[in-house]
Every structure is written in structure tokens, then in C-alpha cells.
UniProtKB/TrEMBL annotation:
Any matching Pfam family: YiiM_3-alpha
Organism superkingdom: Bacteria
Protein name: MOSC domain-containing protein
MOSC domain sequence ranges: 31-167
Natural source organism: Shewanella scandinavica
InterPro entries: Benzoxazolinone_Detox_Enz (IPR052353), MoCF_Sase_C (IPR005302), Pyrv_Knase-like_insert_dom_sf (IPR011037), Tri_helical_YiiM-like (IPR005163)
Amino acid sequence: MSKLLINKLSGLYLGTHLQDMSGVATGIDGKQAAQQLLVHVSHVDGDAQADPKHHGGLDRVLHHFPREHYGQYRRWDLITQLEDAPSMGENISTVGLNETQVNIGDILQIGAVTVQITQPRSPCFKLNLQFGHKEFALAMQQSQLCGWFYRILTPGIIQLNDKIELVERRTDISVAEAMSLYFSPTFNASAYDRLASCEGLALSWVNSLQRRLALQTVEDWQMRLYGPSGK
């Protein structure tokens, strides 16, 4: 039997507007509120990403971000009082569900759409530009208040008043723990083996972990966290 996680969504968002932010194309600030999302296996109608290599694709069709995280980022003075959903570029916003409560590989039912959690969001320097704080991406990485991505198992329509139910739990690694294992600066082969073998994990994360194991080192994160101009 399915387990109810959320009784009602807080918001649905989509958009095709891309903008130039300090010479970088991004769609993070182009989402608008919607009453429903028409979800396909590979995309959402009326939604777009500026960087398909790192956003979108079959493992990242929908981005879910807990709305209460905005309050925490405000308390840390990383965002302003006016910044709220969908400033993170999310498609789905909820209150009452966070990274410790959902696992990699979880199969969820959201309205008519069946999804699987594939990975946490990997914070990048575009968040620094979005919120005007050069350490925002690093703060998200360290706090694990990142949201997560879904692949689509059964396409359909998600409505604003839909519930989120847990259909099946496939692994014992929460989204928060996946962040902790993946973004620890210390090389840990056993942790990488455990995470890479996690059912449902996004292929890009599996490949990254396998590269670390092959090279016996953790990649440099400076470009991702701070962009071409660095710190």
C-alpha cells in the first residue's frame, strides 16, 4: 500500500524563458506558476533548460524543491525576503517533505504521474549569480538543502491539488545521505561503491563515481561552485 507523503502540492512551475546572467545562459529565473504540468518521459510541455548537459535529460525531467528551505536560506542571509518559489528553478514545491525523508530510487506517485528519485541537485555557480551571493552554491552543497530530481516512469498530468505518495522504496540511501557521500571532500572508495550501486541513481552520478574510483581522487569543484571567474 502506498504511503502518503504530501497531501497537497504548494506550487507547480514551468517556463521557456532563458536569460543571460553575467554572460551565462540560464533558465533558473524563467519559471512561472502553473495549475498543471503535462509531463512526458523526456520533458515537461512548456519547460526548458539552458544547459541540457547538466539540467534536464531523462534522469532530471522534474526538479522538486522544498519550499521551507527558502526560510532557512533567508535566516542565513543568503537570499532576500522577497525571494521565494520558484527562484531555485523548481517545477514542484512542497511543504513538509525534505531530503532526509526521501531516498534515491524511491518510486512516487504524483497525481497521474509515476516518478523515481534519481539524484540530489548538484549546486552550481548559477545559484551564486541568481541570489547575488558568491558562496550560495557552496552553502547548498554543505547544508544538503538542495532538492532532488525525478525520472518519469509513467507520464501524465500533475495537478496543483495532487498528493504525493510513496509507492516503493528501493534503497536505504536518503537524498541527504547521497549529498553527504558524494560531496565529502575526502576520497572514500567504499562510500562511492555503495552510492554507485544504488538502484535508480542518475547515470551521470554513477559515471562520476566510477571515474573517482578509477582515478583514486575527487574531482576539482571550483568551476562548478564558482564559475569561470573563480572565487
